[in-house]
AmmeMemoRadiSam system radical SAM enzyme
Amino acid sequence: MVTAEQHEAALWKPAAEGAVDCFLCAHRCHIAPEERGICRVRENV
């Protein structure tokens, strides 16, 4: 659930099974549902 402090991010694309691919930093994370990327900035909610 997205709260008032959260908003839909830029620099990502949908991936299989509810995951997302993040392009915010050089790590280029594949983030599973309810998980965070390596930099801990992005969360897939």
